[in-house]
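ok trying again, last paste got cut off:
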Amino acid sequence: MTVTDKTLPDREPAGSPAGSPLLEVSDLTVSFGSEAGPVRAVRGVSYTVRPGETLAIVGESGSGKSVSSLAVMGLLPSSAVVTGSIRFKGTELLGLNDRRLSKLRGSGISMVFQDPLSALTPVYTIGDQIAEAVRIHQEVSKNQAHARAVELLDLVGIPNARLRADSFPHEFSGGMRQRAMIAMAIANDPDLIIADEPTTALDVTIQAQVLEVLKKAKEATNAATVLITHDLGVVAGFADRVMVMYSGKSVELAPVDEVFYTPRMPYTMGLLGSIPRMDVEEKEPLIPIEGTPPSLVSLPSGCPFQPRCPIAVDLCRTVEPPLADTDRPLHWAACHRSLEIAQRGWSAADVFVRPALPPADASLPPVREERDVVLALDNVHRAFPIRKGAVIRRTVGSVRAVDGVSFDIRQGETLGLVGESGCGKTTTIMEVMNLLEPQQGRIVVLGKDTGTLKNSDRRKMRADLSIVFQDPMASLDPRMPIGDILAEPMWVQKIPDERIKARTAELLQLVGLAPEHASRYPAEFSGGQRQRIGIARALALDPKVIVLDEPVSALDVSIQAGVINLLDELKVRMGLSYLFVAHDLSVVRHIADRVAVMYLGRIVEIGTTREIFAAPSHPYTQALLSAIPLPDPVKERSRKRILLSGDLPSPADVPSGCRFSSRCFVFAEQLDAEQQATCKGVDPGLYELGGDHRAACHFAKVREVV
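nice, full thing came through this time. structure:
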């Protein structure tokens, strides 16, 4: 049976409350005009949401997730052509004028946007903006609306809510701004909350807080929720049902446990197989989905996923499968082979090819201590002065961005540097990349102290030390063809033109691209391909050490898997050492040999990857690990999460004693007055915990967090 607007509302989704559908979307299509032809962003999507239910919509970038929800809100541009039906509490929304839609937005349906800084007005206080949302829909006085705003800010966990209501958006951290957006969304007790990637740009600790606030908001208002995300770990613990979208169409729709444990669509299986998991004991290569989504202007005939699907047959290339019943109740999939997948019990590893682990580098000594040190930091400091005064500038303080960091990286090793935004990770790697003498301490690269380098030595050393940036589009010059981008470092080092041309072709092949791509420009490549180009540029001069600054955080999980596998392979093949900066500990567990955890300018725990994940001893490390969602509904729902209170303190006003004590759950819940005085008054160094494992905590203790 094909899912249509007639069949979906009659089905009762597992685990959702009984009652009539709150939202009914039937055969929704959205298209936009372009020079190349109409862009079919949404193609015949149908789903329902019932009161109190959470529906998660997942898929790669460009799959139509956000467009379909903006259509529900009536927020698409006037150029969009929308057909189908969107009924909210029985009322058809398509065709309503802006006045009637405006009355509905905020009171009946509200939205939490992905970027709260863009969604909030910078010239009005947070309290005024929430109060305005209240007064638009309720007949209350200005004072009553302000009191309601303070109450809502307190509900979503903003400390000193009465005082912070008078703050402007730029005075809030990213997590606090997102919480303020949630407060605005629930201000009028809406029946439906649409959350569009509400945690994408946040640290895992702040993400955990925001998800907890969303759960609290749902309980307080009994609102249904549509959660748009690419993070399947978030979906596992938050959603009741999941709709997977690809190329503008729903390709799988089922209760959350069904999607994770018995997927019937190869695309869903690929998404699940490409996720790096924190809960696996032994490292395995991730399963990438090869290729990229097709253009929505010129979709291939048949199933849009068939060019990337390893089990596609002739029928898949000629007939697009409808969203239809599978062997499981309340489970629909758009795949001609869904019943065969069920009968054979196929998993992602059966459908997609899992690459082999690269063999260990036999040329390296097996014992770490016997390998050469390629990068060492010893008590490195970096402070930035705070100055005031328009005419006479005077220094009134300093921001201690890096405050005594020490670590080393050996040949063929990957060190993962992790921590929240603002902890000093990026400043640390910039100190390394500058190849200058630090304000205090020493940096030694390949046996040479950067404080003693001459300009000529520094230029030569840049051939041995390279970097891959977080945003590949921002780091590649859009005016230069890829061949010139790859050749540029070699021009600087005065390599002969003949060798440059041959090396450019080698580099493109090395990262899985074709030599003929050299004449193309960055805009002609997908995000994953652009990041491969960034890696190729970093490899241009055969470096020995590569710094990777959040190299996969901007990529879809399906693309991320291929890049991570590539980095693993190149490390062994070329004998590279990596300094891998990230906030996603699932990725770090997969790629790193050792892990250093930073907090407020210092390393608070360091050890092998196995030690850090199996026996985390610093409360901050435990909170980071606890905050990472697991892509497993049963495990995720049964976990007891450690939620940190508040935000990272300012590095301009570092707390005395243990700098983590103001947010430490152990300090607040488990220590007596004498022990708390120790934490407040004595700055802990890195205590030896055995082997290579050290933690900066007076009361370090292993706690189970996974």
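cool. The radius of gyration is 27 Å. Confidence is low (pLDDT under 50) at residues 1-17.
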